[in-house]
Amino acid sequence: MNIMDFNVKKLAADAGTFLSRAVQFTEEKLGQAEKTELDAHLENLLSKAECTKLWTEKIMKQTEVLLQPNPNARIEEFVYEKLDRKAPSRMNNPELLGQYMIDAGNEFGPGTAYGNALIKCGETQKRIGTADRELIQTSAINFLTPLRNFIEGDYKTITKERKLLQNKRLDLDAAKTRLKKAKVAEARAAIWAEEVTKSEQEVRITQSEFDRQAEITRLLLEGVSSTHAHHLRCLNDFVEAQMTYYAQCYQYMLDLQKQLGSFPSTFLSNNNQSSSTPVQSVSAPSVLASASASLTSVSNSIVTSGISELKSSSGSRKARVLYDYDAANSSELSLLADEVITVYSIPGMDSDWLMGERGNQKGKVPITYLELLN
User: Fold this and answer.
1) Confidence at 182, pLDDT banded by 50, 70, 90
2) Which residues are CB-neighbours of 108 under 8 A, at least 6 positions away?
């Protein structure tokens, strides 16, 4: 037999097998043929693998969106990855903003208040950009790559073996169908005995192949549990990378805030004035502190006045609650921010407290949590 004859026979056998599977599959769908069901444990493993694949894909894709919000940049990185080439290095958004701020600060003049602040902010933004790059790189290596390896490696192998299992099952059920038909024919004519024997042998062979493939598939599917354990370690690495990133960003911004708050009281102005003209500059923290102190003083005087009038009279007033308050014991009344209650004073009561009423509820309330209404 030459090679051509062998190939022709092999193609004919493959075609016959494919046709047999197609007929069996169609008859099963039409309810005209019996189907060998997988055992419950194997079905459960298959379901777990599909669930793992589905959620791994979703988590992986959304992590990519989180790390790189720009869809065009993600597509570009994907193309370069498939071409096995390194993507060109570009500034990320914090770095680009930082460079703009530094350039603007130099343009306005490093000796001016605004120019100096812009440069400091720009340098901080660039440091945040560097931290952002480190987060993306670390997360890609320790988190995204293992997830992608499961989807493109382990799960593809599982899918391939599962497809083989499906084919072996169709072969087995097709052999069972032929055996059943041969036995029916044998009952009518003795000449079919040889066909029955042949069909029984075919069933034994296909059953053996099916059982072997089922075992291979089961072993692969049971490995999904170890995949979960591996992905858990990767998830811890991802959380640690995020923690490091946010801690760095917080520290950078804290340092920047201190720098901006420690500017000297005078700067060279850049608002259409001569560079030799000194202009008084007050730092933002000192302005806020001063304003806060003034408001607190006014507020305290108003509240104190209103409380004094209420304590000296026997009447009651409406008061709006400023903040939530949880009662410490049964003698106090719990409060919710923005609700309005009735308050009044009792002789001999602590000066920091009033009696409050809300419907049938009554109890002591702290004065500092209230705003008396007219």
Assistant:
1) confident
2) 114, 115, 118, 270
Q: Is the alpha carbon torsion for 135, 139, 140, 144 positive or negative?
A: negative
Question: By C-alpha distance, which of 253, 254, 248, 251 is closest to 134?
Answer: 248
pLDDT digits (tens, 9 = 90+) for 272-324: 444 444 434 444 445 444 544 544 444 444 445 566 666 666 678 899 998 88
